[in-house]
Design a protein that fits this description.
With about 325 residues, the chain is mainly alpha-helical. The chain contains 13 helices and no strands. Helix 2 packs across helix 10 and helix 11 runs antiparallel to helix 12.
Length: about 325
């Protein structure tokens, strides 16, 4: 009976991790868009989110609420590329949200599975199944058609989103490898990522000319209660998103995390037509987004079928601490 219970717990953890990441990821897109419509300094916003995450974990450890291992210089060096890729992904994603409407942003980010498959192929995982390849092509075609009908086309925003896809692919692969090889929990990955991120982000804030204007504007905006509420929610959701993303990738896999991102995009795309500026509807962008979404769902189904035939060992946060 004990093995059956263990399998059930692992299945529940996998489902919970995927569902939580999907909800957090979907919510974060709209919250970040709402903040950036009033506060355009995306790098400062990202630095505040990372600072909030790091401080929460640190004080949680001091007060005994969070159990994490002591910081290790060797581990920090190994995780430095992960931190760079993570922050580059979020930085380019936030930059793209300034000029790209939410449905097109989601459609462009839905190309991540294609990038993950290409990365997997070149890293020795072999050629993907036919259904997976066709679904990814279907998704890409949808993006092209939707872009042709996007009246608010922003070349800079599109290039930022596509660059974000590249960096997201790299950090997802590294998270999966780091969690499995080093036995790190999602909270520990968050803590290392936060500490390694802050010097990098401070450099970018100064290099990109955000400082000191970003701070003076932040203090001006802080007297507005609606903005302050949205900003606080953004900081809290940044913590939640980081945790659920790392948890989902460690418990499941990098590909599972991208699949969840594809599925939550269906709901986000629908809401994005009406919320926070909306979208000027055209036959091409609607058709393209439908094809893109259908390709995403097809891809998710193909990967689900593939995973059913290839069982994978699950490592939970609790198990990671005993390694």
């Amino acid at each position: 009976m004990e093995p059956a219970i263990g399998v059930e717990v692992n299945s529940f953890l996998s489902l919970f991790a995927a569902f939580s990441y999907g909800i957090a990821s979907m919510t974060m897109v709209f919250i970040n868009k709402a903040v950036l419509m009033q506060y355009a300094y995306s790098m400062t916003l990202l630095a505040l989110q990372q600072l909030a995450t790091t401080l929460l974990i640190y004080f949680g450890r001091v007060m005994g609420y969070t159990k994490i291992k002591d910081l290790n210089l060797i581990t920090a060096k190994k995780l430095l590329p992960l931190s760079i890729f993570y922050n580059a992904n979020v930085a380019f994603a936030l930059a793209s949200l300034k000029g790209v409407n939410i449905p097109m942003y989601i459609a462009l980010k839905r190309l991540t599975p294609l990038a993950v498959l290409v990365a997997g192929y070149f890293s020795g995982k072999g050629r993907p199944p036919v259904q997976v390849s066709l679904s990814v092509i279907f998704t890409a075609v949808g993006v092209i058609i939707a872009a042709l009908g996007d009246f608010s086309f922003d070349l800079f925003g599109y290039s930022m989103a596509l660059t974000s896809v590249f960096f997201q692919t790299m950090y997802l692969v590294l998270v999966e490898r780091s969690g499995a090889e080093d036995g790190l929990s999602s909270v520990e990955l968050m803590f290392y990522n936060g500490i390694l991120s802050l010097p990098f982000l401070l450099f970018l804030i100064i290099a990109m000319g955000e400082f000191p204007h970003s701070l003076s504007l932040l203090f001006e905006k802080a007297i507005s209660l609606p903005f302050l509420v949205i900003l606080v929610i953004s900081l809290v959701m940044g913590i939640v998103l980081n945790y659920t993303m790392f948890l989902c990738t460690i418990v499941n896999s990098a590909l599972t995390t991208t699949i969840v991102g594809v599925l939550k995009g269906v709901v986000s795309t629908t809401f994005g037509f009406f919320l926070l500026g909306g979208v000027q509807v055209h036959a091409l962008n609607v058709t393209g987004l439908i094809i893109n979404t259908a390709g995403g769902i097809w891809y998710s189904y193909a990967k689900y079928q593939q995973k059913k035939r290839k069982p994978r060992k699950i490592v939970s946060d609790a198990e990671a601490h005993h390694k």
